[in-house]
Amino acid sequence: MRRAFGPSWKYAHEMGMKVYFQTDMLALSPPLKKYLGDLDTSSSRLWSVYRAGLHELFMTMPYVDGLVVRIGEGGEDYKLAGWDYHSEIKVTTVEQVRAMLTAFLRQADADDRDIVFRTWSVGVGAVGDMHTNPASYHKVLDGIDSEHLIVSTKYTLGDFYSHLPLNTTLLTGRQKRIVEFQSRREFEGFGALPNDLGVLHQQALQTFLAKNPNIVGLWNWTQDGGPLRAGPMTLYLRTGFWQMWDVNVYLTARLAWDPSLDVAAATNDWIRQAFSDDPATVSAIAQVMALSRSAVGKGLYIGPYADTRVKALGLEPPPMMWIFEWDIVTGDSAALDTIYRVARPRLDEAIAEGEDAVMLARRMQTLVNGTSPSSWRDPALRQRFADTLAYQVDLFSTLAAYRTMVLRHAQWLDTGSSTARASWRAAEKRFRAAAAAHEAKYGNNTALPAYNFTAAEIGMQRADRDEAMAWLARVLLALLLIGFALGGSFGQRLLRGAPGSAALRGLWLGMTRPWRVTAVEPNGRTDRMLVWFLPGAMLVASRAVFTWFAAPAHLVVVLGAWLIFAVTLRWLTRGRDRFALSAAIGGVALMRTVILLVALAGRGPGRYWYDFWTEPGLRSFYITVAFAAFCWTFVVAGFVLRNSYGLTRRAASGSTLIGAGVPPAMIGGLIAAIGLERALTVWNDQMALLPWGLSRILGITTYLGIPSAIPVIAAGTGLALAVAGALLAGRPGKRALSPHRAAFSGEE
Fold this sequence. Notes:
By secondary structure, this protein is mainly α. Helix content is 61%, strand content 5%. The chain folds into three domains: 2-278, Alpha-Beta Barrel (TIM Barrel), CATH 3.20.20; 289-456, no CATH class; 466-743, no CATH class. A six-stranded parallel sheet has the order 1-3-5-6-7-8, with helices on one face. The chain is globular and about 95 Å long. Residues 732-748 have low confidence and may be disordered.
């Protein structure tokens, strides 16, 4: 690398530029990782190795002026196939960050080089809000003072999104500070759309300079942001219509010289250099650029949501969310239901913004189309500009229809309004037609690429089934209520001992009074079959409704757990009549099914998840009831093993522990073999609960901080329960029934 690139870096250094290397920490290779051992990043021993590497870098390449360090991104999701270098997110606590900076700065001071530390910590670990929280910033960096330390921070309170306030951490701190700006806006079309940021950057720079004397410069990203192959395949000064973000490079560079710059006049200077010196054409393009911020702000954001600071799952979601990183139009219930709930007081405004954006884009299109090709320095540039604006109109029209569709669908879930339903269905027709046309026109265009509607399609399919699922839930609930009525005393008198009546009676008692199932005597094969078939069928049907008949992964886990639990208990009672066991466990399964069906009978699974994400009171109540019913399953198992099969208290408890332990041991082992991230991705793709792009960009486990060892822990816990149960139960022999319990086997 030194031979290949060293001459270029040396030339840049000699021409007066500063050369900095960028890296994520921890940067690793297989032999380095093996040598470091436990990767204890609070240890000075570990950082002594990196200090040695840093010194080698500076000595062998004296034209390198410093190192830029980031700790908040990286990891396996960023590892390239076949590469033996990678990074791991291991610097996540205050102690670890301070240990790293202390070591690096000792070497930088000795070698007279700079360390640029980026505060971009993206919510990971104890220092996850260092980028946006002044208190956390001070906790990490107070007392670390060096003339060679420069702290680099994005100017927004988050990533490079609109609708975010200025970053308050840039108003504080004793360290030298660099303000980061992004010219090719990562989340706003990747430079494919007109997006003049001059005024915004000026306001930010003037604010920081007025309040923080330690601002020493700015970092203007001219190309970077996001993965290289996401969005338009365009390259600054080389490929594509790069002039769309060259305006921001130009204006931000001039602001660095003079923060009081007349931005409008500077924009006209840029237009004359880039496109035309014809006064009418300059005026038209200037108007387009002046309208561009409002068009992007309305077309790509849902204002009433974007203007609100939202926290979810311990994180602070970005203000866009309905378009998740960078061009994926999401279809997940977590984002869309939350956006609706936040925007609900201003719902009509939120929907109208989409149409306003289309009108602004059409106005911009008219301005450019109204210029004469001969007035442009290069008519080809005029055509590119016209094509870009046609793309913007098409994209914003498609997104406006989708915005209306998802917000009206959520409104229907919330209120049941027939008007909202009609608006949702009408918008869905518009969106399907617009999305198909958008993909057909721009699907193979590398400079103006079609947005990704895969996740949106998954969400639409499930939304379209909500009404049908609600009716199915009502039918299943009605059938269950009929079955329960026939299992009661009055129903039993009507049936008069007909085939299946004992099964219904046993299930009714299993749900209401499982200790009484011994009182029921099966009447032949029909009762013995129905007592397990009916609960099994209801479990399958209700969970299929719950998953919109679209998530086999969920069914495998849930139904598999029930099946393993039931089979384990049946094996433990082998050689005996299992009717009482089937009735008791089946009754509990039906009770839990009733709880689920009541939640689904309103407006289907969509309403279930709407309440889950947006109604904390209902969510807490449902979880409490459902968890209590889950725990009751094991209590009932112990009851029936003791009362109906004559096991001792110890043997019944041990057998129940075995039944409880085997399912997590087997399913946890299966998920561990598959990999938690992969399993969650498959499950989420089918359920459409979290953003579809989450696993593909950041990783569900990484972003949400889910320990990857959970399946192993679950499997180990299950195995431990099973072993403990086996030791407790011993040989599951019978005990003699007491006279009281023997008498208890009569009629109720």
